[in-house]
Amino acid sequence: IKQGKTLILVVAASYILVWGGILTFSGDCFVPDNDCSGNVYRSMDPVLGYLETGALTRPQNPSEIYAEHPIGYSILLFLTKAYQGDFPYVLPVLIQIVLAFGTGLVVYAVTRSFWPKAAVPAFLLTIFNPNTLFVTVQPKEDSLDAFFIAVALYFSFEYIRRPGWWAAIALGLALGISTNIRPSSYYLIFVIPLLFLVVDMVAGQRDLLKEGLLKGLAGSLVGLALMLPWLSHVNSAGEGYGLSDHSLKHAWASDF
Questions:
Q1: pLDDT tens digits, residue range 68-90?
Q2: Are 74 and 43 a contacting pair, CB within 8 Å?
Q3: Distance between CA 132 and CA 161 in Å, rounded?
Q4: How far is the C-alpha of 34 from the C-alpha of 41, rounded, in Å?
């Protein structure tokens, strides 16, 4: 345990140094109207619309309801006040850097549970992956979504080790939050009951199949409950009960 803590501290120190260097040469990413600001404008639209009208509308056309994309990342931008100041995206990006490290810790914990020797390489590859570094420095939803997907993966393995209601509920909660950030993970919510059935069957717990199915359904219901507010909002915009308007549905369908 002591070696594990020392390793994490050493990696954390290296992570801070690496990001110190990246941030030193990436100051322009925190300035609006810059190429490396990702698709932040899509996420910023509902924030600006809400500030102007008190509702989720497009700032360019206040009479139009915003329904293009779930607002999980927009909420982060709103809470960090990324709509004001000369460098509005500094705090969101710093939060993303912390979450990217947290994603690595979750991957480390999951890998260590079934392949201890691969835990450290998996940890390092997660947080120092060039793609991760490139995406994290941009104000966009990917890092936030990746963290909750990793948490969902953790609770999936936790159910395999210790089947219980809390793991099922936590899995549904993580996937529900993820779907409100990036809708490409919504289909996983419907797979939870099947996952738990397969786990119980492989473990030879045939007498627990019914209980496993109920736990899986409970997890799915939690995820769906978190999706409902946004589904209702999109429907109120005349787009039906979906996670985005028609302009993005084909893009999200091809995302997986």
A1: 889 999 999 999 998 887 777 88
A2: yes
A3: 29
A4: 11
